[in-house]
Structure formats: C-alpha cells, structure tokens
Amino acid sequence: MQFETRDIQSAIGWYLAHSIAGASTRYGKGTEITLEIVNDVTSNSDNISNTINILVSVFKPEKDDIDENTAAANLARAIASDTGTVHIPDAARGRVDLYASTNGLLDLGNSFDAFNQVHEACTVAALPTMTPVRKGQKIATIKIIPFTVHKDIIEQLQSLPPAITVHPFTPFKAAMIDTHISASPKTRRVTENRLQSFEGTLHKHVTCTHTQEEIASNIEAYSRDPDIDCILIAGRAAIADRRDDIPAALISAGGTVEYLGMPVDPGNLLMLGHLGKKLVIGLPGCARSPAPNGADILLARFAAKLKTTGADIQKMGRGGLLNGALTYYADFSAKSQDTNADNNTAAIILAAGQSSRAQGRNKLLGKIGSETVIRKTTDLYKAIVTSTPIIVLGHDADHIIQTVGNNGIRTIHNPDHTSGMASSIRAGIQAIPDTAELVFIALGDMPFVHKETIQQLITAAQDNPDDGIFIPTLGKKRGNPVLWRRPILSLFENLAGDTGGRQIIHANEHLVREVPVHDPAILIDLDTPERLDEYGIE
C-alpha cells in the first residue's frame, strides 16, 4: 500500500486516510478522491489558509493488497472454530466482533498468540481463556490497523489452527452432602443458583453428621445413582489434609482424591476427586456464599465437558485471586441469575411517620432539585435490590404515592402507623417475598446515601455468611441503612412503640458486622427545619 501526503489537486484516484470537510459535506476516511470532491473541498473556506495547496494524507492499494474489511473477515474465519459456537458478523471499518452462539466456556487455543505475532497490521483481542460466557456476549474483536493488508499476511494467518471456540454447557445433575450441624437453607439456595449458572441442577440433597463413615455412606449411595453426574460435599469443617474426614471418606467409598487445595482465593481449601465416572468436589467453606470461588471454575469446566486434572489446577494461580479484581465469574453469575447484586435482596422503606419534629413540613415531600426526598430514596433501592422495594405508608400516604408513582415499587398502608416505627417495620416484614434473604430496613428521609454504600453492605453479607446484621460505619459512628438476614427479622415481632432495630442490635452484637464506608450520608438526620434548610430541601 502506498501512503503519502499530497496536494489534493494531485490526489484524484487516491483514498483519504483521514476525513476532511467539503463545502457541502464531510468525506470520511477511505473515500476515493474524485474531481467533484476536490472542487468541493477547495471551495470550503475553512480549508483555505496562507498556503496555496491543500495537503491531505492519502493511500492507494497495490497489487495483491486486500482491503481492511475483507482482511478482517478472513482473519475472523481463520481464528474462530467451525463448531458453530462462535458467531461472525460482517466486517466494518476493518473490524469484526466475535460473539458466543451458546452459553459455555471460552477457550483460547495454543495458537491464539501466534495470530498476533504474524504482523502488526492484524490484531485480535479476547476475553481471558476459560471465561464463562452467555449466548450473544462479545468474546473477541479483530481489528486491521492499516487500510489494506498484503495477501501473503492473510494467507499466513489462514494457515494457523483455529484458536477461539466456546465449549457449550451441557445440562447436568448434582447431589449435595451437607455435614453442617444446622444445614442452612441458604447454602442449598446458593448452591442451586451456582449450578444453574452452568446449566446444572441440584437433583438431590442430604444432611448427615460430619464423620468419615456417614460421609462415605452417602458418597457411595450417590455414586450408584444413574441420575447423578457429580457429587458436592459441604463440610462442617474445612478440609485441611488428605487424611481429613472428607478425603478419607471418598477413599473409603472407593474413590480417588485427584488434588487437594488450589491456587485460587477464595477457594483454596477445595478437594477434587472422582468415584468411577462421577466428579466429586469437596467444597471450600466460602462456597456457602454466592461470591465467586474456586468451585465455580471446576463446575464451569465440568459443564463444558472439560476434564480437570491436578496439572490443570496448578495452572489456575494466574488470575486466581478472585477478590478485589475484575472477576468474570462474578459478572457471569450475576447475569445468569438476572440480578443487579445478590439474587435475594429486598428493601423496606419506612415512610409512614408524621415528621413531627419538622414543624409542619413533610420532610419526605421536600424537594431536592426537581425530585422529592422520598422519590430519591426509593430510586436508590430500585436500582440495586432485586425484589420490588416496599414502601410502608401512613401519614400523607396519597401525596407520597403521587410522587413515587407505581412503577417498580410496592406500597402498603400501615393503619397503626401512629403507634410508632415498630408497627411499620412489622408491616413491611410481612410483605417481603419468600425468596428474600437479605433485607434493608431503610428510612425514607435518607436520599443522599451512596449507591456504593448499599452495594458494600450486600457484598459484606455475601462474604460473611455467619453474620446476620450489617451496619455501615463512618469512623466509629454507626449509621443507616441496616441490612438484615431474614431469620433475624422474627425478633421484631415483640417490639412496640417507636422502637426501631437498635434494641435488637444491642441484644445481638455477636451477629453484627460493621462495614466501614466513605459516605457521610449514613449519618445525616433530616428531622428538623434547620437540617432541611441546611441541605437545601425546599
């Protein structure tokens, strides 16, 4: 390809390398220059300067050059497998994006880097190998840098083995053995959701004591079940040694321990084993949380029908630090469950009070710009929690309904709202859906709380399954909202009057997890006219 800077008068038959404005229109790069274009450009006063000539960067293909779109399309067909799991749309401006045609596990073959090593003119960027992907998700992009590429380069690329494929997830059935003293329904739900992410189902579930004999008996029973494809073991105690109860039970049942431990965190204390043709996974303790861990990696590979060996696990350390990094498993799991955060979150927004300290002003109807206080508060939770937020109404209910509308919220009336906050909390608890496990009890007059604060509380609950009350803190001060695990909400049944959750918190400090946040809004109180004026609420 020839590439020059020329006087536009002498560039007829060449192609623009950069766009340029004419008097009537703008001509994009790649446009062949004609006499009409020259006249239009030279008559544009913006292009006239002290110099006589208008200089343009131009190019002209030579013999055996291939244009950028044809080159990109050829490269896409060369690098993508022909299994039908990768969709290749038409090229445009030298680029082709590749998309998954199925739910599965992205696999970049050994030849992937070679495609980028043939020539700098041709580039391929992709998601990391072994990333779980969904049908229709972009998995790679191809870009041809110059406007043309010599055919020899394309032929060299076409000689390489394909390097991008998606291994489809195949439905499978799992059995779970839980040896926790009081097996939590949450562990089962989390496991069901985790399996569903990879098109698996929890077909059977059993609890037993944490002894080698009991575990071995259940492993052996499930190994004979033709409907079971893999066995998951959630132990009361972590696996610390091959001679520990869970590995010993697998061996006692006639199985083998392929590998104990993995260079993935969370998920270090995981066991990979087999009994006959069935996969056996000793789950790490963190698998009781929906947060990504090493078990997700093994289950994704299993669903994609990829055998996992100890040697495979040894290579998982690169990218194995899942917390605090871009985690494709977290993003994939969230999409698979169609949630914004955790698939069991709800919010009760208390909006029944009379604003008695505000001296005649209904603080919830006060305006922040064009929106009311209660509307801004409601919109915050609508954007994050996965169940429809519940607003408990009482005083001035009709006006509040008018400002918040009916889209994406549920309003309930507390006829006993004058008795105090406790009755409104109980009314809200009665209305939360059965699927909700994490519940915010929020005050309607806290519109300034950051979205990140809400998400931090949810993340803390995911990462700390043994805690039940999650309170945001700024310095040493506790604020609102508070996130509660559903079982603890039963303690509100005995509260009366204007008592919120403080009494329950004081009596159950052992269940409290303080969550430090950088959000002064968790401490803002809008109860008085002075405070409303201070924050510009009209």
Automatic annotation (TrEMBL):
Alphabetized Gene3D superfamilies for the sequence: MoaB/Mog-like domain, Spore Coat Polysaccharide Biosynthesis Protein SpsA, Chain A
* Top-level taxon of the source organism: Bacteria
Q: Does the keyword Kinase apply?
A: yes
Name the Gene Ontology molecular function terms of this record. kinase activity; nucleotidyltransferase activity
Q: Which InterPro entries match?
A: MoaB/Mog-like_dom_sf, MobA-like_NTP_Trfase, Nucleotide-diphossugar_trans
Q: MobA-like NTP transferase domain location, by residue?
A: 347-509
Keyword Cytoplasm found? no
Residues crossing the lipid bilayer are none
The UniProt keywords, alphabetically, are: Kinase, Magnesium, Transferase
Q: Which PANTHER family match?
A: MOLYBDENUM COFACTOR CYTIDYLYLTRANSFERASE
This protein is called what? Answer: 4-diphosphocytidyl-2C-methyl-D-erythritol kinase
